[in-house]
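Repro:
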Amino acid sequence: MRHDVSAVLLDEPLTVIDPQLRLHLRRKLKEIHGRFNLTMLYVTHDQNEAMTFADEVVMMNHGRVVQMGMPADLFEAPLTRFVGYFIGTPAMNFRAAEARDGIVRLDGMVVAGVAAGHVPSGPITVGIRPEYVEFADSPGRNVLSATVLDILDLGSVRVVDLIVAGRKVKAKLQRERALPAGDVLIRLPADKIRLYIDDHLVTARSGSSR
């Protein structure tokens, strides 16, 4: 690595490399970045690579920047549905809902604890990451009935496909968690719900997550 440059430009440098070697080279690049304190512009279509390698991620769509920030920012509060869909495995769950008089209703359920007082009445989209969909033992706030459709074993985690009011929702479980089956209840924690109008984030949350 040269010492007389102020920035290093990398365009898909690890795309066709063996996965294990790719992890090794990614660590080496981070070491070099820390050692020489150089600015690195790293272009990649691999979201995992971007999220684990970068200090700051610039998400682009059709040649335009749609969000820029730390990896956690893009994961926790995607500014558009595109970012929510592109970042995360599986992608963010999105469900059509309705806002009226500051209240959001999803499949007939009032979504409690979500700040929506300034949201105009009309169609709205509720978004939540599969990682934050919880399984509940009894009815309660933000609890919906669901049916387990399928379970995909990814090794350290399992992805549960659910049917909720006729549409699919995904939940992500750590391997040590017991697997659900049949008819179940799921909870959507209010602090993890994001609201979108015209595919753009309009609010995060307010109030308790339970």
